[in-house]
């Protein structure tokens, strides 16, 4: 397992992050704990959860799993969604943040959270209030670093500017959806993260299961993609472009002697600007498949083919601006 620094921080995280959204739901507590221990034994150190995953049950199981290995772990969780049935039980106001961090610390059975992330932008709360509250948590030692998830590029840039202007702590990372079948971040967000040195830790790196090779062009009768709504619903995944990407992944997997999931994850691990893809697994078998994406690098020619087939179409303004870019790269 290799390690990368998270954004402009000095925090070293493993090249894969174990996502725990299924813990306590499709993954039993015993299998969840075993999965975490296997991950740590393999050299992984980065775990991601959220206070709303399985109504807090995921955090509780993660806390049990890392209890005797806390200093080894970079622990990430999130705040934003509703946790109580009253007007202040949702969002990223100072009140909701302070209430939620205490509840997360209790469920995780720890004194601090390494990476505390805003799950989604909150239009009802000024970003200055949110960042001040997060800065106070860092000062208090309850949080070590802060990040965000599912932001527009303007929201991230505004947040960074507010932090700089007020000398608050900055977001060191962004958690977006990003994969071979979801590269919308390439339009503006990825260049912004590279420019501002914000770490990128993608969720759904194998397209919610679409890139595992389990699905064909026929609508499935079982599996996650049968959901009617959500980013990994069949309605959003099943289009000819995505199937062309899947065909390329299957061909690469056959050529390399790897599984489709390993190929899709490995492509992402080695993409410029990506720090640590977040992979999940419902079973220990799925875990072993996914962890096999670490520790190797596919041939450049194969990587380039996958990059080309999955790339966004040529669009304005990138198409226009590219004509005038100076072919000079920074050497520092």
CATH hierarchy: architecture: Alpha-Beta Barrel
Number of domains: 1
The string of secondary-structure elements, in order, is EEEHEHEHEHEHEHEHHHEHHH
List the uncertain runs.
none
In angstroms, what separates the terminal alpha carbons?
26 Å
Which CATH top level class fits? Alpha Beta
Tell me the radius of gyration.
Answer: 20 Å
Query: What is the assigned CATH homologous superfamily?
Result: NADP-dependent oxidoreductase domain
- Biggest sheet strand order reads 9-8-7-6-5-4-3-10
Give the count of helical stretches. 12
Average pLDDT number:
95
Q: Please state the overall shape, judged from the principal axes of the Cα atoms.
A: globular
Strand fraction equals 5-15%
Structural class: alpha/beta
**Biggest sheet details:** 8 strands, parallel
CATH topology name: TIM Barrel
Measured as a percent range, the helix fraction is: 25-40%
Short description:
With 332 residues, this protein is of the alpha/beta class. It has 12 helices and 10 strands.
Question: What does it look like?
Answer:
The model has no long low-confidence stretch (mean pLDDT 95). This protein has 332 residues and is an alpha/beta fold. Strand 7, helix 5 and strand 8 form a beta-alpha-beta unit. Helix 2 crosses helix 3. It has 12 helices and 10 strands. The strands form 2 sheets. Strands 9-8-7-6-5-4-3-10 form an 8-stranded parallel sheet, covered by helices on one side. The protein has a single domain, classed as TIM Barrel (Alpha-Beta Barrel).
């Amino acid at each position: 397992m290799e390690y990368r620094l998270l954004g402009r921080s000095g925090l070293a995280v493993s090249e894969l992050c174990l996502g725990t959204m299924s813990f306590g739901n499709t993954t039993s507590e015993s299998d969840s704990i075993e999965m975490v221990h296997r991950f740590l034994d393999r050299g992984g150190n980065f775990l991601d959860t959220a206070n709303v995953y399985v109504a807090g049950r995921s955090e509780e199981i993660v806390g049990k799993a890392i209890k005797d290995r806390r200093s080894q772990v970079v622990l990430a969780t999130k705040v934003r969604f509703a946790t109580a049935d009253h007007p202040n039980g949702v969002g990223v106001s100072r009140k909701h943040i302070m209430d939620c961090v205490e509840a997360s610390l209790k469920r995780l059975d720890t004194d601090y959270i390494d990476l505390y992330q805003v799950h989604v932008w909150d239009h009802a709360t000024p970003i200055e209030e949110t960042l001040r509250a997060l800065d106070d948590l860092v000062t208090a030692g309850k949080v070590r670093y802060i990040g965000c998830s599912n932001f527009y590029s303007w929201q991230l840039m505004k947040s960074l500017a507010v932090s700089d202007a007020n000398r608050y702590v900055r977001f060191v990372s962004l958690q977006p959806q990003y994969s071979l079948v979801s590269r919308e971040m390439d339009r503006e967000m990825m260049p912004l993260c590279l420019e501002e040195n914000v770490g990128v830790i993608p969720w759904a790196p194998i397209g919610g299961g679409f890139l595992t090779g389990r699905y064909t062009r026929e609508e499935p009768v079982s599996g996650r993609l049968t959901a009617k709504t959500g980013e990994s619903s069949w309605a959003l995944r099943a289009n000819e472009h995505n199937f062309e990407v899947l065909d390329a992944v299957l061909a690469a997997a056959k050529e390399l002697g790897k599984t489709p999931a390993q190929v899709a994850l490995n492509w992402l691990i080695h993409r410029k600007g990506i720090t640590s893809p977040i992979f999940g697994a419902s079973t220990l078998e799925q875990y072993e498949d996914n962890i096999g994406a670490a520790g190797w690098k596919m041939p450049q020619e194969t990587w380039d083919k996958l990059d080309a087939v999955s790339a966004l179409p040529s669009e304005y303004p990138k198409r226009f601006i590219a004509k005038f870019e100076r072919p000079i790269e920074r050497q520092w």
